[in-house]
Amino acid sequence: MRVHICAMGRLKSGPEKALIDDYVQRFERTGRGLGLTALTIHELDDRKGGGMEAEAALLERALPKGCVLVCLDERGKLETSPQFAERLAGWRDAGSQDVAFVIGGADGIAPGLRAKADFSLSFGKMVWPHMLVRVMLSEQLYRAASILAGAPYHRT
C-alpha cells in the first residue's frame, strides 16, 4: 500500500524538512517488508489565495484515485500509536492500494472535503502549525511501521 501526505504549503530547507526526510526514509525501509511501499509527500500552493475551498480543490486533485482519505483535524479521533498502527494495517489488509493523509492550510480543511474523509485523525485538542503536523505525521507513520514490524522503537 502506498502512503501519501497531501499538504498545503511548501517546506523550505530547515529542521522540519530534515526531520520529515529522515522519517520518510525510515518508514520506507521498515515498511517495505510489511506491504507499505512508498511514502510520498505532495506539497500544494494556493497562489491565488482562494481560501479553504480553493485549497480543498487543490488537495482533491492531488488525491490518488480510490484512496482511503484521512483528514488531519483537531475534531478527529484521538488514537494511541498502536491503535494507529492497527488502523494502517487494516487498510492495507483490506486491499487498499493508497491511503492519503490530508493536512490543510492555516485555516484547516474545508468542511466539504472533511465530509468526504473515510477517517479523521487528531493529534490532540490543540491546534498545531500545519508544518509541524507533517513532522508529527511522518514520525507516527514510521512508528506504526515499527510497531507492525515488532521493532523496539515504540515502547509502552
How would the blueprint of this fold be written?
Blueprint: E1 2-8, H1 15-31, E2 39-44, H2 51-62, E3 68-78, H3 81-93, E4 98-103, H4 111-116, E5 119-122, H5 130-149
Parallel strand pairs: 1-2, 1-4, 3-4, 3-5
Description of the structure:
By secondary structure, the protein is an alpha/beta fold. The protein has one domain: Alpha/beta knot, CATH 3.40.1280. Helix content is 44%, strand content 22%. The chain has helices spanning 15-31, 51-62, 81-93, 111-116, 130-149, and strands at residues 2-8, 39-44, 68-78, 98-103, 119-122. The protein has a five-stranded parallel beta sheet. α3 (81-93) packs across α5 (130-149). The longest helix has 20 residues, at 130-149. The radius of gyration is 15 Å and the shape is globular.
Quickly describe the structure:
The chain has 156 residues and is α/β, with parallel strands linked by helices. It has 5 helices and 5 strands; from the N terminus they run E-H-E-H-E-H-E-H-E-H.
